[in-house]
Specification:
Elements: E1 24-27, E2 38-40, E3 46-54, H1 58-69, E4 74-78, E5 89-92, E6 105-109, E7 113-115, E8 119-121, E9 126-129, H2 131-137, E10 144-147, E11 150-153, E12 157-160, E13 165-173, E14 185-194, E15 203-206, E16 221-228, E17 231-241, H3 247-260, E18 271-277, H4 303-314, H5 322-340, H6 346-354, H7 358-366, H8 371-384, H9 387-397
Parallel strand pairs: 3-4, 3-13, 4-10, 7-15
Antiparallel strand pairs: 1-2, 1-10, 5-9, 6-9, 7-8, 11-12, 12-13, 14-17, 14-18, 15-16, 16-17
Helix pairs in contact: 1-4, 5-8, 5-9, 7-8
Organism: Nocardia speluncae
Pfam family, one: Lycopene_cycl
Protein name: Lycopene cyclase
Length: about 425
């Protein structure tokens, strides 16, 4: 079933590269993951440890690091453990744990701006992570690193595609989310440019209609953030669609928007392409990161939440509170609500969101187990939008047939 597309709230993502073949075992200095790993043969058909973590994206690597700090024996499994991360990761600064090295921050914006139909200043600090430093800081020296693919995960046993089994006190699935036909995805196309100057604010979300898109077409917005070294990421973003806005169209819109704002493009700038699913995980014991429901299905956030929770999971606090399950269901309802809105109503919807008290914004965006806060935020937002938008939000949230203006083509994605 197709669905209406909307713009993305942040470039927080935990992509997992499934490309790899053959199991090899390494012990390595993970501060230099591509240069210093050395292979050695696997002698035992069964390996035991305190914990086996499947997946070495930001969530899995952070958990492995925090387990090693606690003196645990750790096995990590990934199809390509030497892979260098390339994505841009960012988070609200107050989400980041105290143990995270300050050198991992590439840039911090004290008061990011947003535009719906009008301008908003968000009184919440926003930080962009230095991807390379983040990966190196999550040092997994001392872990047993296996190159391979897990085909079955049980409570204490992992089976690899070779038939080899691993045994541990705990098994954690941190493999992220897989793309599947019909699954809602987030897409974005970005260019890394020289900083236009201090007078240009960081834009968390800019819905202004200067990207050349037809007024009735699916909406996208500009995400403009400093990434350190006098560089700025300009990214045309789509929150979610099934199917999403394709990258070629986002690239065209971005270039049109930059021309309209007088920002020159040479043509040889570094490019960032983003495409990943926003649904498919679930908050369950034994899962972590996007696979465990840490990815906010209505916003795309995941890395900040995973970093914040890695220490607790390492300590064995794996029970999922009922409040977290309930909040995840509310967030899925929020996703349906966004998908139900016709393009013309999205800027006004986000005006209402950014006019909420910052504590309510925090509850909805970051309160993974804050059921009361999430309900309060959604209730206040519902009251702040126009009556027509309110009716569509209610229908989508309650799984009722879509209430769309004639010819809008808007549908609810199930």
């Amino acid at each position: 079933m197709t669905a209406r597309h909307v713009g993305r709230i942040a470039v927080i993502r935990s992509r997992h590269d499934e490309r790899a073949t053959g199991p090899t075992e390494t012990h390595h200095d993970a501060r230099y993951p591509a240069e210093t790993e050395s292979s050695r043969p696997c002698f035992d058909p069964r390996v035991r440890a305190d914990i086996v973590i499947c997946g070495l994206g930001p969530a899995g690597r952070a958990l492995a690091y925090r387990c090693l700090v606690r003196g645990m024996s750790v096995i990590v499994v990934d199809p390509n453990p030497r892979r260098h991360w390339r994505a841009t990761y960012a988070a609200w600064t107050d989400e980041l744990p105290a143990w995270l090295a300050g050198t991992t921050l590439a840039a911090t914006v004290a008061l990011p701006r947003a535009y719906g139909l009008r301008a908003h200043t968000i009184p919440r600090s926003y930080s962009v992570l230095d991807t390379g430093r983040l990966q190196r800081s999550l040092d997994i020296t001392g872990a047993t690193v296996l190159t391979g693919r897990a085909t079955r995960l049980d409570r204490h046993i992992v089976t690899l595609d070779t038939g080899r089994t691993l045994q541990a006190e705990r098994v954690i699935d941190a493999r992220g989310l897989r793309r599947r036909p019909g699954r809602a995805e987030q897409t974005a196309y970005g260019l890394i440019l020289d900083d236009p100057g201090p007078d240009e604010p960081a834009l968390f979300m800019d819905w202004r209609a200067d990207n050349g898109a037809d007024p009735g077409s699916p909406r996208s917005f500009l995400y403009r953030i400093p990434i350190g070294g006098d560089r700025v990421l300009f990214e045309e973003t789509c929150l979610v669609g099934a199917p999403p806005i394709d990258l070629g169209e986002l690239a065209r819109r971005l270039r049109c928007r930059l021309r309209a704002r007088g920002i020159p493009v040479r043509g040889d700038e570094p490019v960032e392409r983003v495409r990943f699913p926003v649904v498919g995980g679930a908050p369950r014991p034994g899962r972590f990161g996007a696979a465990g429901g840490y990815l906010h299905p209505a916003t795309g956030y995941s890395v900040g939440a995973a970093l914040a929770a890695a220490g607790d999971i390492a300590d064995g606090h794996t029970r999922v509170p009922n409040a977290a399950r309930a909040v995840y269901r509310l967030r899925r309802a929020g996703l349906r609500a966004l998908l139900a809105l016709p393009p013309s109503e999205l800027p006004g919807f986000f005006d209402a969101f950014f006019e909420l008290d910052i504590n309510l914004q925090y509850a909805y965006l970051s309160g993974r187990a804050d059921f009361a806060g999430t309900v309060a935020a959604m209730t206040r937002l519902f009251a702040g939008v126009p009556p027509g938008t309110r009716a569509r939000l209610a229908a989508a949230t309650l799984h009722l047939p879509p209430l769309s203006p004639p010819g809008s083509g808007s549908v609810i994605m199930e």
